[in-house]
Design goal:
ten-stranded antiparallel barrel; DUF3833; DUF3833 domain-containing protein; single chain; about 65% strand
Length: about 160
């Protein structure tokens, strides 16, 4: 997890601050050939108590499928984070520098009636205007399956809720 000088080109990202309260996200999943496979929305309720961040994420996919993930994220040092959720294998690791966060984890991803054990390598970038852009490579056995792209914005930056999950 290596950050670079480009991390200074936006406002500082502190996930415990960014995800406090309600946040909305829109995302897509493209396979390794660039074909759009899924679109989705996420409604996130974040609670930072000074020691740990709880993220309650509710997903709605374009095909009507719904899902939920509840993260518990703990700062472990300057710009360092660990996280856990029910479908995460072991502990997620995060490193933050400037406006970026690299978040890596393994998870059991639901696919049809089963699941695949995959790895995620997320890169999040906080942009001016308090918009968070996330690009994640999804891999299985070291082979890229595809890329997830998400955009996050705070509820209080919107005139009205864009959706409710």
């Amino acid at each position: 997890m290596k950050t670079d000088s480009l991390s200074q080109q936006g406002p500082a990202l502190k996930i415990e601050e960014f995800f406090q309260g309600k946040v909305y996200a829109w995302g897509i999943f493209e396979d390794r050939f660039g074909n759009l496979r899924r679109q989705f929305q996420v409604e996130i309720d974040g609670d930072w108590n000074g020691e740990r961040l709880i993220l309650d994420e509710r997903f709605l996919y374009g095909d009507g499928e719904r899902d939920q993930r509840i993260w518990t994220i703990t700062p472990t040092g300057a710009g360092q984070y660990e996280g856990q959720a029910d479908d995460i294998i072991g502990t997620a690791q995060g490193v933050s520098d400037g406006n970026q966060l690299n978040w890596r984890y393994r998870m059991d991803l639901k696919v049809g009636d089963g699941s695949w054990r995959v790895t995620f390598d997320d890169w999040m970038y906080l942009q001016p205007g308090n918009v968070l852009v996330n690009k994640a490579e999804v891999r299985k056995w070291g082979v890229q399956l595809g890329v997830v792209t998400l955009f996050f914005i705070h509820a209080d930056q919107l005139k009205q809720a864009p959706f409710s999950l």
